[in-house]
Amino acid sequence: MINLLGISCFYHDSAAAIVQDGEIIAAAQEERFTRIKHDSTFPRNSINYCLEEAFLEPNELNAIIFYDNPIYSFDRLIKTFINSEKSIEDQWCKAIPRFLSSKFSIQSLIQDMLNIQIPVYVTRHHLSHAASAFFPSPFESAAILTVDGVGEWATTSISFGQDREVETLKEINFPHSLGLLYSAFTYYCGFKVNSGEYKLMGLAPYGNPVYVDMIYEHLVAIKSDGSFRLNMDFFGYLDSDYMTNQKFHQLFGGLPRKPETMITKKEMDLASSIQKVTEDIIKGLAKHAKELTGSDSLCLAGGVALNCVSNGILDNSKLFKNLWIQPAAGDAGGALGAALAASHMLFKIPRKLNINKDSQKGSLLGPSYSTYEVRAALDQYGAIYDVVDDAKERAFRIANAIKDGKIVGFMNGRMEFGPRALGSRSILGDPRREDTQAKMNLKIKYRESFRPFAPSILKSRANEWFDLNNDSPYMLLVTTISKDKRKSFNKKELSNNNLLNIVNIPKSTIPAVTHVDYSARIQTITIENNSEYFNLISAFESLTGCPVLVNTSFNVRGEPIVCSPDDAYKCFMRTEMDLLVVENCIMQKSHQPHNQPDDSWKDQYELD
Amino acid sequence: MILGRINMNSTRNQKLSSHFYRKLFLKAAKKLRDKGYIPIELSLSDEESWYSSPSQNDDFVLFEKEKVAEQLSDLWSSSGLVELSSLVPEFMHLSDNLEFDYIYNSEIPPFIYVMY
Known about the structure:
The complex is a heterodimer of chains A (608) and B (116).
Chain A: E1 3-8, E2 15-20, E3 23-29, H1 31-34, H2 44-53, E4 63-66, H3 70-83, H4 89-102, H5 106-114, E5 120-123, H6 125-134, E6 141-151, E7 154-162, E8 165-173, H7 178-188, H8 197-203, H9 212-218, E9 220-222, E10 228-230, H10 246-251, H11 265-293, E11 297-301, H12 308-317, E12 322-325, H13 332-346, H14 371-379, E13 386-387, H15 391-403, E14 408-411, E15 425-429, H16 436-445, E16 454-458, H17 462-465, E17 477-480, H18 499-503, E18 519-525, H19 531-544, E19 548-553, H20 565-574, E20 579-582, E21 585-588, H21 601-604
Parallel strand pairs in A: 1-4, 4-5, 6-11, 11-12, 14-20, 16-18
Antiparallel strand pairs in A: 1-2, 2-3, 6-7, 7-8, 9-10, 13-21, 14-15, 15-19, 16-19, 17-18, 20-21
Helix pairs in contact in A: 6-13, 7-11, 8-11, 11-12, 15-19
Chain B: H1 10-34, E1 51-52, E2 60-62, H2 65-78, H3 82-85, H4 88-97
Helix pairs in contact in B: 2-4
């Protein structure tokens, strides 16, 4: 048996993954254990968990694969400093010690932690992404498109995957990067880089793409072969601590929006514009991938593949018959890709393909907790709970509470790998109620959000409620709600600067999950992917006729998604959630000791 | 506010890095620029922006810290960048003298994409 451990760390979201004879056994992000959002430190806890899950001692590993080649990343870093004629000593003093003392020490860090001598391989960043998208897909062969900020020199790649090989065909290099272009607008609109991109995407439907021509005229040149270049005169990321510079600010008429200040029509229009440009570029890249490979199937990964609006448009374009997107498309997924790539391409393990089902296992690759562990965790807080062993009774009890307007924290089975909560660590609500969105935002998430929540729907009913071409088990496609479920509303509200007025207007029969353009970030559920969650939605449907639940991640703002029963109970008690379900234990807030909301978490978690 | 793990050695690391930058790196960088070397392709020309595929030899490389110097030196020498390859021993010396710098999130402004 060949046991391989993949690791990603020292950029954004560190993670580890274990693959045994080509089968994915476990994968987890470090942030879930350390409770530090986007933790990029060495993934000590994730490695420990993966070894435990695979029942392996460190000396049973055949090799460890790091997802990125530090030599080429260092080369890019040094050449970026050479490029600057002005002194950027401040940036040098931040970057160089971090790099030299972390990435060049990866081998000793691993060997010190595991106390073994073991081969440590490094692979290429975009090969890790490409492998994470192709090998778990249900495709025998496929074009693979990876798009992110940067990894070593590459920012974009087109590859072809067949059997147990992935061949990179072409790349676009730094600083010409779609990920960095999107991040520049994220920063300019007042959101945090590396975490606020999804907010910008969610803001786009409120605006009009009035800046598209300006972006094409000044910032981006798209070539006939789908490639692109950025005009670096307008960006700051080569030689400053900011994504944009003075020239960019002059072009768009002012300084960047300050975080947490009011979002105006300008930001809405900028979001809409950069979203349109992103979609254009992605379509061009995908078209070129099609020309190069002739494939009917496309796999996507890299941070930009989390732009589910763009994914939905690509899906609707029918450019490719089949589409599969790695749910951990960002850097965390690189750990999984590195292990898969080495498994098939280096250790020559044959790929076990099932054309009817991907091998990502519903992306439920993280830790689970036994009923004994759950009860021990709850008992330490003196929690009052009912044990409901019968799965059907449990599902109906929870579904009834949701029908009555209760907000439910729901934790069952293995934790999700990737940024989305898929029904194992989720907060759930009734999508039909007009007050659900406001209640979940203000009393649970503690934010005033302009973004609707995502719907989970039984796959068998998806086409009745949404205009969906493909399956969307990982919440990575945005589509529109069926016309017969829509409600008309006064579009003049969209010219209003106050987003919250627009958010609270019901736009469909399931208002909590319907955006202003009638779009929704859909998740389709099958019994195979998550039987407990499937049973719950089925019970809700039989009570209400609605096969949809509101699904948002089980956390408060700035907190990583909960991992353990301990995390779940603490989050439950911090918020105004009504009900908590952890495996077969169900507890009501009103029955708990010290059941007053506790806002001490606000000192612990930095706002995202 | 918990943002990361505290690095007790950041001042020492900063001093060493700053010294390297001023005494060694700036000179090498200037020499290269004066020779007309273009480290990053910034042109917006109409030519295609794709690069051909990387070598498959780079798909999996056995990584050993002792060989980093050799690999960096080879990479830069083969591109004619003697100014950089001659700095490799100094880079390695710097690397050996830096204390392990735990990623300390607050050192990185939230306005920049982390590229290193």
